[in-house]
Amino acid sequence: MTEPYAVPVPTGYRVGDWEVRAPLATGAFGSVYEAHHTGTDDRLPRTAALKFLPTGTNTPRRLAHLRDLVEREVELYRRLSHPRLIRLYETLTVDDPGRPGLDGATVLVLEKAEGSLAALLSRSPRPADGPRLLAQICEGLHQLHEAGWVHGDLKPANVLLMRDGSVRLADFNMAAELEGTHAYTPAFSTPDYTPPELLWSEIGERGRRIRPSADVWAFGVLAHLVLTHAFPLPGGTPTARRDAAAAYARGTDELRLSPRLPDPWRDIVRDCLTRTHEGRVTAGALLRRVEAAVGTTPRPRRRPPAGDRVRRGGRHGRGGRPRLGRQRLGGGRRRRAGRPDHRECHRDGRTGRRARRLRTPYRPGRPRRLPAADRRDRERLQAG
Question: Hey, which CATH number is domain 1-112, 3.60.10.10, 3.10.50.40, 3.30.200.20, 3.30.565.10?
Answer without folding.
Answer: 3.30.200.20
